[in-house]
Amino acid sequence: MTHFRTCNLCEAMCGLRIETSEGRVTSIRGDDADPFSQGHICPKAVALQDLHEDPDRLRQPVRRTATGWQPISWEEALDETARRLHAIQREHGKDAVGVYVGNPTVHDHGAMMFLPMFLRALRTRNKFSASSVDQLPHQLAAYLMFGHQFLIPIPDIDHTRYMLILGANPLASNGSLMSAPGVRHRLKAIQQRGGRVVVVDPRKTETAHVADEHVFIRPGTDALFLFALLHVLLEEAGSKMGKLAELVDGLATVRELARGFTPERAEPHTGVPAETTRRIARELSASEAAVCYGRVGVSTQAFGAMCQWLINVINIVTGNLDRPGGALFTRPAFDIVGGPKAMAMSRGSYGRWRSRVRGLPEFSGELPVAALGEEVLTEGPGRIRAMVTSAGNPVMSTPNGRQLDTAFASLDFMVCIDPYINETTRHAHLILPPSSKLERSHYDLAFHALAVRNTAKYSPPLFEPGPDTRHDWQLFLELKHRLETLRGEPRVRGQLTYRTLKALGPDGLLDLGLRAGPYGMKLRPFRKGLSLASLKAQPHGVDLGPLAPSLPQRLATRDRRIQLAPEPLVADLERLRQAFPEGTGATGDGSLLLIGRRHLRDNNSWMHNVPQLVKGKPRCTLMVHPEDAGRLGLREGEQAVITSRVGEVRAPVSVTDEVMPGVVSLPHGYGHGREGVRLRVAGEHAGVSINDLTDDQALDAISGNAAFSGVQVRVKPVESARTKEPQQHSATG
Ligand SMILES: Nc1nc2c(c(=O)[nH]1)N[C@H]1C(S)=C(S)[C@@H](COP(=O)(O)OP(=O)(O)OC[C@H]3O[C@@H](n4cnc5c(=O)[nH]c(N)nc54)[C@H](O)[C@@H]3O)O[C@H]1N2
Ligand SMILES: Nc1nc2c(c(=O)[nH]1)N[C@H]1C(S)=C(S)[C@@H](COP(=O)(O)OP(=O)(O)OC[C@H]3O[C@@H](n4cnc5c(=O)[nH]c(N)nc54)[C@H](O)[C@@H]3O)O[C@H]1N2
Ligand code: SF4
Ligand SMILES: [Mo]
Fold this sequence. Notes:
- By secondary structure, the protein is α/β, with parallel strands linked by helices.
- Helix 8 (222-237) packs across helix 11 (274-286) and helix 10 (263-270) packs across helix 11.
- It holds the Pfam family Molybdop_Fe4S4.
């Protein structure tokens, strides 16, 4: 049998052609007929089969007992979860239960639709997610400027003639907040059109290698660089906003702010020569269609929100927002931004309440995960005593992971919705494992809305789930229903909602959303347009055209105008000035600045149990520039001790001039060698966790996002390693 499907492991949405025989996958290939990915896949796609067949993947709920993990029934597991959560909230208040939601949630429409219902039923303010170690700055900037947290401008990579990339490595990540399968070809096509690709990154990455130019920048200083670009753009070219001029408020303020931030003021901090900055600004301004794009490397830093704001401002003052070849808003078939209220995601909110211990602001109902450890460990009313995690591995993914390890071990109750016993879930009292990815239907609710082209595609389940299998969405619905029942909430209405949602399921809701969407059948039968049935009839997906101008209609601000100088961001400038005083530069106190990295065959922390993906040279190595290696006595392949304020790890050194002098790089998602982790393959490629070094106190003060980029560390050789046999692996990047 041949099945067509979308890969949902990363944001690229590659179309797959999967052959099965007698209930087993026999091959996974790219689907040439997929209008979006046109046959492209990466090596991770085949892992869908390995994950499905993985003997370490849990198929049944388990309970932790003194003698090990015991399988239990679904009824027992769900009842016990609801009962324990309810009891803890009744005794200690609703905020005594914390929740952490991880990245795979956004790759599953069922989870995306039903999780919010469960969270509402839980009523806690202690909600955390991977957003605050990732894209929260994008959401805050979008909320403040365009009126909706997910109204995020997407680079029109297929039509641009100049692409300035900061803090993103799409050749490894396959693009983020820019779903673009086959990004290498798309970048090459820019060059073939006579355009230019420029990468600004403290590491000469895979993307930098295919770019026309790579510029090193000192980690964490991008806000100064972006301000310097803006300074030149406004000083030399003036604003080229064109039609946007009529939609924008605050240009005078921005002009005033940028005045003091010259390229010369930035240079001693950023390491980017002032002349280079001026030239890039001129190139941006002169190009008929240019786009500035910044991703994780500029979000996860102390001025993450400021960076994402300035990137939007640069795209606006050069006239490139809402222009083909610039940055545009998508028009997705299921419209999570502009669709009917019941279907759309919340526009966002900011600072309605603050975290108990450190007073950090909420964003859109959640708190920065960097505060989770202290919320569990700090005594007092409102302390978190129980945790729910779902599709997340915060011990590996959030700053000061060891603190969370300790915190989770101290909880009265912890339940994890997760297929694996890993670094986080080993602390659980109960683990509820969902269906495998091949047992579910799929529609990319989030990433169709963040893609470089408007397309829509539905994939039916490849395998029918057995009677003892539950989907994430079913777990959320069951837990919601049980909690409400325990609280004695309105019986009749509750039952009715429960039954309706159970019958509709995510695909029923998807159908309603598609029909109500911009290409939809509008709930009238016998009319052309999208519905679940019409998508099912087109198994390769439907092309809905290139990104197109949509302003001002698409804006979600009340006055349908763009706020160029939002007050919270303007107020943050003083912090920038203090962090990088004028007339000074980086201080040479001997410490190095740590950054992360991604490898094409990794996927955050959770795919190292796939033999195909972990074979080859060890990847969890510390990249060090030859000058630093020489100065510190570090040698290729030998172990180094890396120390930060919060922790210490050891990793083999890889000497390479691909990192900037003064910068070292370690990938994230490793560190599986902990007691109780049940990942046999990953355990043989354990590595260490960079987040045992990153600091829970280092944040972007206004968004609350973790500041991973540029953690100060000290590195020295492990003395004993010298005298021993040479290390087995001569690790290089
Ligand atoms: N293969 C693979 N693909 C993935 C993932 C994965 O783990 N593996 N993860 C997925 C997820 S969850 C996400 S969010 C996306 C992320 O997608 P990307 O944002 O493309 O992620 P990275 O590859 O980490 O690229 C970040 C870049 O920022 C650079 N950087 C670090 N600090 C700074 C700084 O201070 N300034 C500047 N200018 N650059 C800096 C790093 O050197 C790195 O090259 O990838 C997704 N895709
Ligand atoms: N230092 C540093 N840290 C980082 C980053 C970095 O660049 N540098 N990147 C950050 C980013 S961008 C992100 S998004 C986060 C990711 O942070 P997390 O989302 O917390 O971590 P993941 O490693 O993606 O773990 C996913 C978990 O979900 C489980 N899982 C997989 N599929 C499913 C499913 O379908 N259902 C359920 N219920 N569970 C599932 C896996 O077993 C695993 O436990 O990491 C962040 N951490
Ligand atoms: S690039 Fe992403 S979506 Fe495409 S095959 Fe690889 S993991 Fe799957
Ligand atoms: Mo992410």
